[in-house]
Amino acid sequence: MMLPGSIIAGILLLSLALFFAVNLENVVKGSKERSGEEAYAEVERPSGVFISLAALGTFAFFAEALLIIYLGSVGQIYLFMPVLQLEPPFGSTLQALGLAVVSSGVIVFVWSVVARGRYSVAWEMPEDQQLVTGGPYRYVRHPSYLGYMLMFSGLFLVWLNLVALVPMVGIPGYMALAKPEEELLMSRFGQRYREYMRSTGRFIPRIGRGKNR
After folding, report:
1. 28: which residues sit within 8 A by CB, 6+ positions away?
2. Over the stretch 122-174, which tens digit does the pLDDT of each residue have?
3. Phi, then psi, of 125 in degrees rounded to 5
4. Integer Cα distance of 122 and 57 in angstroms
């Protein structure tokens, strides 16, 4: 037994609406605050392969999520490429788990956007860039990447269609991007960031981290 497409479509629509609303607000607010600031690069940009994988996974996720929302709203979610559609035992349970994982990923990502505010990490950072260690950064060093990974993984469980494996190519891309980003932050913040790395996991929280800060 599988979940009704309308339920899946509704939950995904709410999740994407939250994702885009918070990101849009942050972009508009950040562009105003950063107007006129000088920025510069401190480390070599990462390989185009990893950026391409991350971008492909991200694009595929949003394209497929929107497709699922449409198909679910017209009652055709399980008729798209039926040869690739899986119908495992306890399918509805897996789908409910997938919706929870996707929603958790969106929440983690949005939380990271709110926590870092205008101090998002980019390959060119302004002089007054601050090291953000609050919010989800209290538990993991790359919560936005973790959010994407949860979203990509959860979508497959939601749809249970082999097409939904495509976004997961973004997972190794984001995992690889984390290292040069950390080199950038070490270059900027030095010992402060090294201490942060020792006490905070990259993608998985370290036990006792929340009690020490």
Report:
1. none
2. 666 667 778 999 999 999 999 999 999 999 999 999 999 999 999 999 999 99
3. -115, 145
4. 19
In a domain, residue 108? The reply is yes
Give yes or no for a contact between 103 and 15, defined as CB atoms under 8 angstroms apart: yes
Q: For residue 79, what is the DSSP state?
A: S
Is the residue at 204 inside a domain?
no
What are the CA-CA distances from residue 92 to residues 10, 116, 157 (Å)? 16, 36, 9
Domain that holds residue 154: 5-199
**Model confidence, pTM:** 0.89
**Measured distance CA(123)–CA(187) in Å, rounded:** 12
Q: Per-residue confidence at 213, pLDDT binned at 50, 70, 90?
A: very low
CA atoms within 13 A on the CB side of 198: 6
In a domain, 136, yes or no: yes
Distance CA 147, CA 54 (A): 13
182: in domain: yes
